[in-house]
Amino acid sequence: MDSHLHNPLSASGTDGREERGDRTAQALLESARSAFAVHGFAGASVRDIAGDAGVNPSLVRYHFGSKEGLYRRVLDSAMEGLRERLLAAAAQPGAPRQRIHRVIGLYLEHLASQRDIPRLIQRALLNREPYLRELVSNYLQPLLQALKPFIATPLHPRLGSLEDVIISMFGAIIAPFLYEPLLVDLFDRDVLSERALEKRRRHIEALVDLTLDELLHHPGA
What we know:
mainly alpha; Tetracycline Repressor, domain 2
């Protein structure tokens, strides 16, 4: 009889422990992202995170080294995918406004699919988490550098600086996700529905077009 029939290892050469470990680590990340978004780093409990993931708390140390290691990995995983998608969208061919429209659409899509991310970053900002400096250098600075070539001419005085434009666009995109409960009560509707987000995307694209039109009509004014 062939010996491999008695081999408990799978065809891939593992006994499934690696796959189970990956699933456990992913479950801990998902649970931790929600906990850190709601409670912040200090307020989130390793025991509660592990309990929500359905695993032993000791597995946090096994997979991530510590609560801080888990927190850093949560922030990294939240930002890595967003950065890569936005940089790829900005690098695709097309006129400046087409490329900016792509970036806006992807940003909204990413936030809509991962609702904890805005609150997670907001919590980190409010608590002045030291790891935020690394987030800025590792993820936000590359995005800023990718956006600068879109506005090669000086801005019209009424528009302020490039930083002013970026802050305004960023605020227009992320505000509904941060202030959802308040906006729902204010407007008595779901501000994060698919229809509402599509309307928000068109609105921000119109703001971009107005800004670019102003630049073209008043270059260097």
